[in-house]
# Entry
Amino acid sequence: MNVLDTFSGAGGFSLGFYLAGYRIIGGIETDKWAAETFLFNHKNAIVIIDDIRNLSDDELKKQFRGTRKPDVILGGPPCQGFSICRKGAGDPKDPRNSLFIELLRVADILKPKILILENVPNLVNIKTKDNKYVIGIIEKELNGLGYYVYYDILEATNYGVPQIRKRLFVIASKKELKKPFPVPTHIDLSRQKGTLFDTNLKPCPDLWAAISDLPELQASEGAEEMDYEKEAQNEYQLSLRNAAGKIYNHKAMNHSKRMVLRFSTMKCGDSISDVPFHHWPLKRNGNGEISKKIYDQNNRRMRPDKTCHTIPASFYANFVHPYQHRNFTAREGARIQSFPDWYVFKGKPTVVSTRLLESEGRFNEKFLCQYNQIGNAVPPLLAASIAKNLLSNLGE
# Structure
């Protein structure tokens, strides 16, 4: 089963299919660093670094034909809030005015057996100006291409990913599917409160089970390539370890002494608003004056005995390590997302704000950093569960 990953990012979605035994034949991604990550880890794939709107029908047919004709096309195009219609020319919430239309175009040209759309759960609640549900329009458009359509919101912890993360998946299939979505294999016991549960389900790993074997680092320590210093301590760590004995992208951020001291006052579960006032951040250009504006979602010390909160694209500033006085490394975020340790992320670990890059003309750095790539990804173990379930449905 050949897989083409459109809007591929770093390739978490397609990695799950690779782990389930599929062949990754290509990726389409507009961001240079994310595309480099995809190509480095899927060396036999064709990776097109371009805006999908720039690719003609003929070019797509030429690239993905014969042994490279896709059986499965994946895509997570931004549907609502990122309209590509001209201002005043249409409803920006209508998916036909978004990059979703490009995913339809690719499917119409290459005619895969399966097309899978991934997006935010709230998409099922959004309506257009004429009071039509966005998800209904998506379903109708896919029906028009000859697909049976199924959609559901899946929780990552139900499939062994140590992170609270819900995503919407729309599966379009040329063949009618009896069970389009995988049944849960795990349960998040760290957030259960005495409720009964199916004893056939495995406990989902908590945060500490995901990262406790990685080398301990202080701020500024670590490297883009390191050796393991500890043995694996559980099944999850064993499953993600690199047989070559190497860890990549495990570099701690260069925190100031003031920030390290601030983190040292925090207990698990505390955020920046819980630290003593004299440890709060200083105003920018404020001559040492303490800022009274803080963002409670930033720099919360995670509890080791629970699954992690959702890893966003900016998670380098969101979470503090349970025991070490620093934010997570990119590799720790990758572990929480269920990426294996051999999966290397390219580009810089972090970049400054897009606005600053533009003002300073640093356009060669205006790409998705390692943290962005990891936070934007579909957790590979969740994707693998979808992929395996589809194989059983299709009888492959």
